[in-house]
Design brief:
Length: 72
Amino acid sequence: WFTVLFAVCLQTSFLTPPVGFAIFYLKGVAPESMKVSTIYKGVVPFILLQLLGLVLIFVWQDIVTWLPAQAY
């Protein structure tokens, strides 16, 4: 479960400063009139969802291990 927690944490870092690779990629394909601050405001709900996922995985580790346990 720790590896999945780590992966979700990394995914969150792609949306948040100072790394924010996904935001800078989006700025590269967005129209010139689009400001980075507008993109930051638009990504806030997704960051909150990522943080909710982190909390759920941290509190209930069985969420991560349930499906593999069913498969094997």
